[in-house]
């Protein structure tokens, strides 16, 4: 705003008036200059702007649509999208049909790297007076990572790529189940609030092995709790099949880690699953039926006979060396016979058991041993034995242990694969029933009728006479 000044001037005559005019002009000029300086200061101010010195090859003509270049106060170019007001200090570029995650990176769009390479190129060309040195146009992902690794830290993340969405969903489902199992193990206390008693004593830890809460739970719930808390696995399922049977049309099989365990039948799917869960618990926990008997106060002769029959095997480990002799004396299935049945049930009839026997010698050279290796599918076991016959049985025991990591005692395997134990075979052919006796019973007996007629005629003749 202009500053107004007020001055009082006195005018005289003669030479005094000329001197007054000169003084007036001088003062008026001084005030005008001061007035102009005030106006200039109010209209604009002098400032210094900083900008980068770009190379001759740099151009802003190839910016994508909607993007503009603005000079930032820092001196670096700033790019803004006028529609979305998204800013970037790196020059955006149009991708086109190239891959988003795996395409050549233009060096021009990485400002610091572009300037560094240009400086190195200019220095090299100046020192060698050569025009062959040029800044690269694009970078591969490995070259760009090597440049960024000088400032940033990278870490490797394992990723899984699936061939189909079905396999991916199965993997995610299994992963979520494992996470639920871990959460259950962390939140569930290690001790149980129930005590399982027999008629005269409390079972010891050696007999029970694990405490299971039996209150208000069915067989399926007990099996799931045992698998999650004790065996720490979530890879289990119930396979349901339909049978041509009017009374029990459903067959359920419990599969744990790809190996079949208990089998059960029922009039409904739920009943079949419950029966298979009960059979599986009886295999995994030999004393499980003792618990149910004591709980319900019922004596089942079949259960008692079964428990007494396999009592000796329920205290022998699967790899015990005495098993073969006891099986021969008790006319039970040998480990090798049980292994063949196990392979047939779990891997199919066409699966082959690879059996290798290699002779090895000790340092003295007098004693020789055999190294027996048995392999089926992805499972394998190797044992050292003195003779081939014993090595085959011992190798079968070792392979059975590998196939059944959740089973500790040999009695549980006998309940699965013994030829004397009851096993339902859904593939067993149904023989047609013969009704020859009923057929003959429904027909009239011609010979008997002839004899009867002959005797009746004879009796009539005698009566008439």
Please describe the topology of this protein.
Elements: H1 15-43, E1 67-71, E2 77-81, E3 87-88, E4 105-106, H2 111-128, E5 138-139, H3 141-148, H4 165-187, H5 205-208, H6 219-229, E6 236-242, E7 250-256, E8 259-266, H7 269-284, H8 288-296, H9 301-309, H10 323-329, H11 335-347, E9 354-361, E10 368-376, E11 379-385, H12 388-403, H13 410-417, H14 436-442, H15 446-464
Antiparallel strand pairs: 1-2, 2-3, 4-5, 6-7, 7-8, 9-10, 10-11
Helix pairs in contact: 6-7, 11-12, 11-13
CATH architecture level-2 label of the domain at 166-309: 2-Layer Sandwich
CATH class of the domain at 166-309: Alpha Beta
Beta-strand proportion: 5-15%
Strand order within the widest sheet? 1-2-3
Q: Give me the CATH fold name of the domain at 166-309.
A: Double Stranded RNA Binding Domain
Largest sheet: 3 strands, antiparallel
Q: What is the number of helical segments per DSSP (H or I, 4+ residues)?
A: 15
Quick check: average pLDDT? 73
The H/E string reads: HEEEEHEHHHHEEEHHHHHEEEHHHH
Estimate the helix proportion, in percent: 40-55%
Q: Which stretches of 5+ consecutive residues score pLDDT under 50?
A: 1-15, 187-210, 290-301, 422-437
The N- and C-terminal alpha carbons lie at a distance of 172 Å
Radius of gyration: 49 Å
Number of beta-strand segments: 11
Q: Name the shape in a single word.
A: elongated
**Which class best fits the helix and strand makeup?**
alpha+beta
Pfam families: dsrm (PF00035)
GO molecular function: double-stranded RNA binding; heme binding; identical protein binding; primary miRNA binding
GO cellular component, one term: microprocessor complex
Keywords: RNA-binding
